[in-house]
Design goal:
Layout lengths: L1 E7 L5 H21 L4 H16 L1 E10 L2 E8 L9 H18 L3 E8 L10 H9 L7 E8 L16 E5 L6 E9 L3 E3 L3 E12 L8 E8 L5 E6 L3 E7 L4 E9 L12 E9 L3 E7 L4 H11 L4 E7 L22 H7 L6 E5 L9 H12 L3 E5 L21 E8 L6 E2 L1 H5 L22 E6 L3 E5 L5 E8 L2 E6 L5 H4 L8 H12 L9 E7 L2 E7 L8 E4 L5 E4 L2 E4 L2 E7 L4 E7 L2 E7 L18 H4 L6 E3 L6 E4 L7 E2 L2 E4 L5 E10 L3 H19 L2
Parallel strand pairs: 3-4, 3-5, 5-6, 6-33, 8-14, 15-16, 15-17, 17-18, 18-24, 34-36
Antiparallel strand pairs: 1-2, 2-37, 7-9, 9-12, 10-11, 10-13, 13-14, 19-21, 20-22, 22-23, 23-24, 25-26, 26-30, 27-28, 27-31, 29-30, 31-32, 35-36
Helix pairs in contact: 1-2, 2-12
Length: 685
């Protein structure tokens, strides 16, 4: 193939040639006005002179014709894999391949679109833009989308030089039901109901009799399922109450309806953080000591703590002559605190308290009952713990993890974390907070006790138990066999992590999940699952992970710190995952249970209308038949009844180029001179 055209290489700049042409036109016009018979010869002479200055040449190109390109975008996202849409897509792909092969000079290219990362849905327009960046615009004859039309980036601006068509999958009778959480708070107060708003929506050609009410099931952290009937098409409020602090996973599921496209959007996951409104603490102080003010300041400094401080300023055996009616403005409500309202407290602390006859045995028995029923008790022992009036010798002793031997050891020692304490979350990592290489500051008194039950996390003089924890039926108790923790607060010999230790103790006794001894937890970042198994044992087994589709995967864990085992796993799909190791179970949500791909599942061409209409393309529903393809001129309608069009582009590449002057310069001058002479002779007659 070749092409010829005339080009110019002017001897003078174009503005100068324009000025010369203007003068020539004026001279010819003057000759015509004066009635000179050779005016037209004058004009031709000027034209020949201008042509000589413009230096025209004949340019010849040798061209190789390029084929047109038809781009076919195949949607393989989740929504286009529902029902029979995969088969429809493959049939349409084969049909287009045959039709395009039958058109002369058309090359077909295919692009596949899969689910986007991080639950972004179907990014058809983005995939199309990337494909167009690799195709010359002057060769693109047409673009075909084999999709359900459910693109989540259809608002992207695309400048297409040729028609864009959609071959739409799906059936006219398709319908689906989905569950939507319209309102869910991120936090909830433990023990108080919180309201979530749900909505059940039907989409598509809903069959008669499918409306009305739908059964809904929901559970918290994979616990027992509860049920409710919810109206379809209306907002429904459900009250749930969280009993566990930390992150809670709430799962909602609709009962599957016969004939709906998918059940993947019949569920919803809500992650809600359970927090305590206020921590109600009862501090019972006995013998005045240097640590008493430390305990009070520590608890009062936390705005989330409601503190009731019961203290004995003058024991009954002290005779200082002060009248009883001058010791207090009001009688202290011991019965109200220790009998009537004791269950309202989250934590009770006995700091160097001994039986003085003020609290009768019935009160101590009620405190023991409070612990057994789920309460939390912390005892800080001084010399009175080893004496005959020790509270251990009251009914409260039934919940103690150790028994005192009546020995009080007055000598300096540094508290140390035991091997078990290295693995327990209450004391794990505390040694890293030591202010100096020699360790924490010394204490100077320890009460000798014999551990009987529970766990010894810290020891003191000659390995004697110093800090013990114990689970008592449903409750918890902690015992510190020394009254010298205040030395750490004062910074003696560098001090120690008193605040962190007491914070962890309080959280453990409150049952906070992050301080439990045996836990199985997981967090998700994108589609990467980080699993942590904490145990006091010497080892743990594989973690069994159950995916949303029911498949199970065994994951080995590695001990990264004493008692802390971890592993990571890239999950194959988003949804709710269940974890199991021994008797421990847990759940974690990776993205929403119903991905964005399933928010809307009814096929439609409306979303892509903004991209298709400017190109004069069309939408064909595959359920009504596949179209034939035609070649049409650029600018004409590219879609009609039963057919779609592609635009021939006639693109080429130049392989050789030759240039030859139209006339030599001297020939133009002779021609101009001859025409001027002819004008002179004609006008001289």
């Amino acid at each position: 193939m070749s092409g010829t055209e005339i080009t110019f290489a002017p001897l003078l700049p174009w503005p100068f040639l324009g000025a010369v042409a203007g003068v020539a036109v004026l001279m010819v016009a003057l000759a015509l006005w004066r009635g000179l018979r050779g005016w037209w010869l004058r004009g031709l002479s000027a034209l020949a002179l201008l042509a000589a200055l413009a230096n025209p040449a004949l340019q010849t190109e040798l061209r190789d014709t390029l084929s047109d390109i038809a781009l076919v975008v195949v949607d393989q996202t989740a929504s286009n894999r529902l029902s029979d849409r995969i088969a429809q897509t493959e049939t349409a792909r084969t049909h287009l391949e045959q039709e395009l092969a039958a058109l002369p000079g058309v090359e077909t290219r295919f692009v596949t679109v899969k689910d986007a990362a991080r639950d972004q849905g179907s990014l058809l327009a983005g995939a199309l833009a990337e494909a167009l960046a690799e195709i010359p615009r002057d060769r693109l004859a047409g673009t075909f989308l084999l999709s359900d039309g459910l693109a989540h980036d259809a608002d992207m601006a695309l400048d297409l030089p040729s028609p864009l068509h959609l071959l739409q999958t799906g059936q006219s009778e398709d319908w689906d039901r989905r569950l939507v959480v319209t309102n869910a708070p991120a936090f909830a107060i433990l023990g108080e109901p919180v309201t979530l708003t749900l909505r059940v929506e039907d989409q598509g050609a809903v069959p008669s009799g499918a409306g009305g009410m739908a059964p809904l099931f929901y559970s918290i952290d994979g616990g027992p399922r509860q049920s409710a009937m919810v109206p379809i098409g209306q907002d429904m409020e459900i009250d749930v109450t969280l009993d566990r602090g930390g992150m809670n996973v709430l799962q909602f599921e609709l009962e599957d309806a016969p004939g709906e496209l998918t059940d993947r959007n019949n569920g919803a996951i809500v992650q809600m953080n359970g927090v305590r409104d206020r921590l109600r603490v009862l501090l019972v102080s006995g013998e005045p000591n240097a640590g008493q003010r430390t305990w009070r300041n520590l608890l009062k400094s936390d705005p989330a703590v409601d503190l009731v401080h019961f203290t004995i300023l003058r024991p009954p055996d002290r005779h200082d002559g002060v009248p009883v009616n001058e010791l207090s403005l009001i009688a202290f409500p011991t019965r109200e605190l220790f009998i009537e309202k004791i269950d309202e407290f989250d934590l009770i602390i006995f700091d160097r308290y001994k039986r003085r006859g003020i609290l009768p045995s019935a009160y101590f028995a009620n405190i023991a009952r409070y612990v057994q029923d789920g309460g939390a008790l912390l005892v800080v022992g001084g010399p009175e713990l080893a004496g005959a009036e020790s509270i251990w010798r009251s009914p409260l002793g039934a919940v103690f993890p150790a028994s005192p031997t009546a020995r009080v050891l007055d000598q300096g020692f540094r508290p140390e974390v035991t091997d078990l304490g290295q693995r327990h979350p209450v004391t794990a990592g505390l040694e890293a907070l030591a202010p100096a290489a020699e360790g924490w500051g010394r204490w100077f008194r320890q009460i000798e006790v014999v551990a009987e039950d529970g766990q010894v996390l810290m020891d003191g003089i000659d390995g004697r138990p110093l800090l013990m924890l114990n689970r008592v039926e449903q409750g918890r108790m902690a015992l510190i066999a020394s009254d010298q923790t205040w030395l750490w607060d004062r910074g003696f010999e560098g001090g120690g992590p008193q605040l962190e230790l007491l914070r962890r103790l309080a959280h453990w006794m409150m049952g906070e999940p992050e301080l439990q001894e045996e836990t199985l937890t997981a967090t998700a970042e994108g589609q990467r699952l980080s699993i942590t198994r904490r145990s006091l044992g010497d080892g743990v087994g594989d973690i069994i992970v159950t995916a949303p589709d029911g498949t199970e995967t065994a994951l080995a864990v590695t001990e990264e710190a004493p008692g802390e085992y971890r592993t990571e796993w890239d999950v194959p799909e988003i949804g709710l995952y269940r974890l199991r190791e021994g008797d421990l179970t847990s759940v974690v949500a990776v993205g929403p249970q119903a991905p964005r791909e399933y928010e809307s599942t009814i096929a439609t061409g409306a979303r892509l209308g903004g991209l298709i209409e400017p190109t004069r393309g069309g939408v064909v529903e595959m359920s009504e038949g596949l179209p034939e393809l035609r070649q049409i001129r650029e600018g004409r309608a590219a879609a009609g009844r039963g057919w779609l069009g592609v635009t021939p582009r006639n693109a080429y590449v130049t392989t050789d180029l030759t240039t030859a002057a139209l006339l030599p310069g001297w020939a133009w001058l002779i021609l101009a001179a001859g025409l001027a002479l002819g004008a002179w002779l004609r006008e001289g007659r």
